[in-house]
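hey team, just a heads up i'm posting the complex here instead of the shared drive bc the drive is being weird again. everything in one block, sequence lines first with there labels, then the predicted structure for the whole assembly after. its two chains so it's a bit long, scroll down
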Amino acid sequence: MVSKKITPARILIYTALCLWAATTIYPFIWVIQNSFKPKGLIRSDTFSLPMGDKFTLENYLTAFKRVDIGSAYINSLAISGIVTVVVVVLAGLAAYGLVRYHFRLRGFCQSMIVASMMFPVFSTIIPVFRMENSWHIVNTGSVWLTRLSVILPQIAGNLSFAIIILMGFIRSLPIDLEEAAYLEGYSVFRIFFRIIMPLAKPSFATVGIFTFLWSYNDLFTQMFFLRSKRFFTITRLLNEISSQAGTNYGLMVAAVVMVVIPVLVVYIFLQNYIIKGLTAGAVKS
Amino acid sequence: MYKKKGPLALFLIPTFTFLTFYLYYPFFMNIYNSFQQIGGLGESGRGMNTPWYENYLKIANDPLMRTALKNTMVLMVLTVVFQVGIALLLALLVDNIPFGGKFFRTVYFFPIVISATALGLLFNLIFLYNGGMLNQLLMNLGLIKENIDWKDPNHYFLTMVLPIIWQYVGFYFVIIVTGLNNISEDLYEAAEIDGATGLQRVRYITLPLLRPTLCTCLVLAITGSLKVFDLPWTMFVGGMPLDKSWLTGTYMYYQTMNMADVDYGSAIAVLIVVLGVIISRVANFLFQDKEDY
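-- predicted structure starts here --
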């Protein structure tokens, strides 16, 4: 539909778009570039490229020597991975039930979900801590119990958003397919796993990606429940480094890069999924 | 087929168990806590405060709380205007280009996936007084003679607000672009045949049809600005400079964790929720009722 001619207006549009793109890309290029320079240069010669005698791996060596990055990655992956899987399955089931079934408390259930999005984590964290404390899953010294104590509140915190997104998508699916399947003798669970899930795959992917990233980045909950170094996730570790590094700006940039790089890689690979999900929905309607 | 309600319970029970135990119970417990005396985190209350609304009196008379409220309100207005505004502008622009749309979407969205802790550190280095990236840039360009202290009382607010706004523009951008994609091409073609200019098309087709999407963005931006925590917490430790930069979220954490005043922290959290509900209700009402298109 949009023509491919180059007009002055179009050049202006591209300039504006590129300017904003520069603000979102350049800070990351800048931090990566400086992580390979001797720490003194960051504050005196920040725009030069790390080449020749300006190139060093010193910052990364310091970071690896001082902290246990490897186990932090594993902790992050275990926690956020489990949170994501549980949220996607539970939110999918709930969204499906809320869209397709008509029952007396439906309106109430839906407003319960929408209202819970309003609760800031600040307003629930203290009682949650006390509750988990009374179940003896906080500060136990056991890896899996400690992980569990972070996983449970994070699942609850991500469910409502996921349900709302999935409800929107499931509502837009034609009901005919499900009816046909039902006449063929499919149970509702089979319909959910065989028809709804494959059809709504793009929005399940979107929900999954969001949940994973929010869980990975959520410092507030992790600060409350991860006290011992052994259990630190990558975000929690970064917070620790930032308070210990003092004026060692080299260590700081290296730490930032090590937190950002895995997310960047995951993002580049899964971005296709998000975009496909968004545009597929649009094409269908 | 959806008449038999048997399986419904299995669909809903796990989710609502989570919501009940991890959101609703703690939420109401927190309101109750705000009237109690609590010695420390993880301890239960030792009885009611005297008078029972003591913490709310304290909120009303706490000058730092007033600073936090004022800052949060200003932040909220700026967030709504600039975050959603810039996102809408960029989305309308992207809608008019033949290629590169996907690239811009990818790039704009990127800051959202990065943890605010990492961004806080990054911006600390950018806004550093002695040899920060911004000061070096301005020096090299010859725009300033001396380093600017971006966190002093004259600059702190901008320094705090810019990264917050910047980070989430891409989020609203993606939502709005999706909304734009849902607008049928036929409408635009019809408008073109009728001789509508680009701006007229935006005014009479795009914006009215985008209203529900924009309304969603508005509510998300309002509640989002009440939840801001990580970025100001890493960039402006302890309300610096001179207790001027508190937001409701950071002040609540500070009272709970650093001052160990758990029940006062709970009361602030209650206030945050009440504000969020009232303001987004009002915004929703104002925005949806106006039928001037």
